[in-house]
Amino acid sequence: MKLLKASCALAALVAAVPALAQTPGRDELADLVRLQAAEIQSLRARIDRLEEAQQIASAPQEPVAPPVVVATQEAPAEPPAPHRTQPYAPQLAPPGPADRDIARVLEANAAGVKTEWGAGLPVFHSADGAFTFKPRGRILTDVSSTFGSAYDGRNLTTTGMRALRMGIEGGVGTHFFYQFETDFSENEVDVVTAFIGWRNRISPGIEYDVRAGHLFNDRGFEGSTGSDSTPFLERATVATAIIPQRGFYGIGAMPRLFWRTGHASLTVTGDRVDGTQTVSDGRTVLGRVHWNPLKGDRAILHLGAWGFDEALAAGADTLTRGTVIGGRFNGALRVSTGVITGGTGTTGYGAEVGGYVGPIWLMAEAGERHARLDAGRPDLLTRAWSVAGGWFVTGDLPPYNPRLGAFGQPHVLRPVFDGGSGAIELTTRYESLEFDGLATGGRGWAATIGANWYLNSFVRIQLNAIHWHTDNPAGPYTGSDDGQTVSTRVAVTF
Q: Which positions carry the signal peptide feature in this UniProt record (predicted)?
């Protein structure tokens, strides 16, 4: 640093040589000397401030309050319980003066902004821990190929973006939090998660939060698991068919209660985000509870139940459904209801049971949905069930989130980017779907085997091989039909 100071002084002296060569007068020479002395003093002061900033940045930092990481909608990674703290990595040293303005470096350091690098993106914390901010994103890229169908129109090879999201999340203080995400997967801007929330502790071991905005359903095990966390490329038929007509989202409020072995939620919403304000929204009331009667470090038993009731808005009486059975990106491969109009509402309910022991997990779900029709016609009845399981051959634990009773992002023991093998999971699932009550209702089933390679906690590669069967009385692909679909995905979640 002394050499740097001497260099600065020498540079100032050299800069003065041309002026001296012009043989200025005594007054001009005095002014020039004072000017050069002031410049040298200013350079020395700036260098001293830079040294001080580097010393502060390299010193160990005190533990700070944890970031407010809001529950992922479609990816329910929960924040730590309020009033808990944990240390984070020290702040990095700022860049040199050649890269950034010194004044800005000093201003940021004086503000005490902390940066923690987590799942691929930074989390910013104010000095007092009161403010947090984090960008978030999701990129799910799929390739699917279907063959073996008796209909050439079903034997397709397609590509698609299951999700292409960008968003933000953060909080103010211990209690207030927010999240906003948009999706571009269909080459259109679609608002998905968008809410504000408040959380607090009632007593030791009992907490709550209340969220308001555009909310993701808390409905069943896979129905509450984010698209970036499901162990298969697509959710099972219970999640895709036993669902309100408005879909996975709605604008409203959701209070949730958490205790050490489970949680309960109640959701009241209208329609999802749209531009229709000329008629009243539909109304959906949905509740879910899950319980872990056995809960240990390497084993958990999961029990759950849920239900919803939906009143359709005026003019939204079409109940026609075509539910995926062999993957998302084959529009011809569906179990369909046929054309159904005159709907007035839906009611659905389901149950879930499963858990894990060490690296092996198992989950079974079943549900039923009654779609009410006008003019005295019988309900359209939908029945679905599934049994799924997986084994982490590398010994990693399943990414079960006991706070929400759903899957989240895994904790990979040996990430590939640190020289390890990553986490390797083998999966299998059988699912069934049946539409009953009308002559046009179809039925089908699918058996899937798969493999997931988690390079680290937020990057993975998935492969699913599906044998499927459909029997649709109506539509372009009627009668009994069988075939196979092979799908793969590359996924990155921030």
A: 1-21
- Report if residue 336 sits inside a domain: yes
> Token pair of 283, please?
């109304």
476 token code pair: 């372009």
Residues with Cβ within 8 Å of 190's Cβ and at least 6 positions away in sequence, in order, are 182, 183, 184
CA 139 to chain centroid: 10
Q: Please report where in the chains the tokens 């000329």 appear, as a residue.
A: 278
Burial (CB < 10 A; 0-12, 13-18, 19+), residue 290, is buried
Residue type, 189: V
Question: Nearest 5°: CA angle at 23, between 19 and 25?
Answer: 105
* CATH number for the domain that contains residue 132: 2.40.160.10
Per residue in 385-430, pLDDT (tens digit) is: 999 999 999 999 999 999 999 999 999 999 999 999 999 999 999 9
Residue 150 belongs to domain spanning:
102-493
Q: What are the beta bridge partners of residue 177?
A: 171, 197
Structure tokens at 227: 């698209």
The per-residue pLDDT for range 18-55, each reduced to its tens digit, is 444 445 566 666 666 666 666 676 666 666 655 554 44
Residue 115: in which H helix or E strand, if any?
A: strand 114-117
Based on the fold, state whether residues 366 and 223 are members of the same structural domain. Answer: yes
> Tokens 């069943």 correspond to what residue?
220
Q: State how far the alpha carbon of 180 is from the alpha carbons of 89, 168, 194, 283, in Å.
A: 27, 5, 4, 23
Q: Are residues 173 and 299 in the same domain?
A: yes
CA dist 386 and 62 (Å) reads 49
Q: Mean of the per-residue pLDDT values for the chain? A: 84
Are both 50 and 108 inside the same structural domain? no
